[in-house]
Design a protein that fits this description.
With about 150 residues, the protein is mainly alpha-helical. Helices cover about 65% and strands about 0% of the residues. The protein starts with 12 loop residues before the first helix and ends with a helix.
Length: about 150
């Protein structure tokens, strides 16, 4: 898979947000492919939590819905065997959908990636953490700027 990273030249919060909508799923897929099996399970669990079964049926030919159905009535626990048929393209689709439902869930990957020694050595993980932090900061400053602008006479 090709390495995708941010373009720091001329990057603004608005342009970073737009670029991150496409870059983040690709970077998560790269991190997923390079991660040890247990870390892959944790990545998928995090991304599945806010999503309903109905939406999961439409993503990646239902591969994630099958995982969710297996855990029905129990705490979501993704097993290594569950991920046998999950490809990088499937992960991209999952992240893309998760961003639409709960951008905070995708942003929460920062803590997970930062606390994993095996994933902090990945260039894709480092770039991903940077993009997620940048996007979260941009979201925090945008409402404050809008509020400040509304106070101007």
């Amino acid at each position: 898979m090709t390495f995708i990273g941010p373009n720091p030249i001329g990057s603004t919060p608005a342009s970073a947000g737009a670029a991150s909508e496409t870059e983040i799923p690709a970077l998560v897929a790269q991190v997923y492919e390079a991660a040890p099996a247990e870390e892959r399970c944790h990545l998928v669990e995090t991304l599945l939590r806010p999503l309903g079964v109905l939406s999961l049926v439409a993503i990646a030919h239902g591969v994630f819905a099958k995982i969710r159905f297996r855990s029905a009535g129990h705490e979501l626990k993704v097993r290594v065997d569950d991920l046998r048929n999950v490809s990088a393209a499937d992960m991209m689709a999952l992240v893309h959908h998760a961003q639409q439902v709960s951008i905070e869930t995708v942003d929460s990957l920062v803590q997970q990636l930062s606390s994993s020694g095996s994933m902090t050595s990945s260039a894709a993980a480092i770039v991903l953490v940077g993009l997620l932090v940048q996007r979260a900061r941009a979201r925090r400053t945008t409402p404050m700027q809008a509020r400040d602008a509304s106070l101007d006479p």
